[in-house]
Amino acid sequence: MHVLCVDEEVPFPLNTGKRLRTYNLLKRLQEGHRVTFLCYGTGNEELPDCPHVKLVVLRSPLLEQKGGLFYLSLLRNVVSPLPYVVVRHYSHAMRSATEALLAHGDIDLIHCEWTPYTENVRHVLGRVPSVLSAHNVEAQIWNVTIVRSGTPSRKGISISSGKKCSTMSGRRVGFTGRLRSCPNRTGGSSRTTMAAGG
Fold this sequence. Notes:
alpha/beta, disordered C terminus, Rossmann fold, globular, five-stranded parallel β-sheet, single chain, 7 helices
């Protein structure tokens, strides 16, 4: 099976829980499958002990979360139906790279490793089975930000972003509707469930 994993960055060095989780997923997945890992970075990244994971690293469009451009992007997001975290991580380059990889016709599964990245692959959903790792806490983070926001404008942006994240999470449940169960060891179909916080 050829699995296309889509994520934010190469999960190395192993200095965060998210990186550890993703790294261990890739390390084990490569033992029995072909894995292509599509993400942002500089192009100099390495993934130790994962010789069978092909890295496709795109130049990152992410803005630093400070300065005029950052605040302008937040202001523009007020009229967007998508949460800022999704708009921030979306790029035409990743969308095009996904399309190009699927054009070869040998991708059997798309694994989207973080909820905001579903927007980058939304246009190809339905062509191949897809899995979403939905460890989505963005709405909760925005709700905490609302409480801590000092100015009315920051509070307004936080409320808007929190609502958009909650709405997006509900829509992305449809993404898992395209999830196909893998056979279990007895040859039957394993059950697929969604767990809060899991």
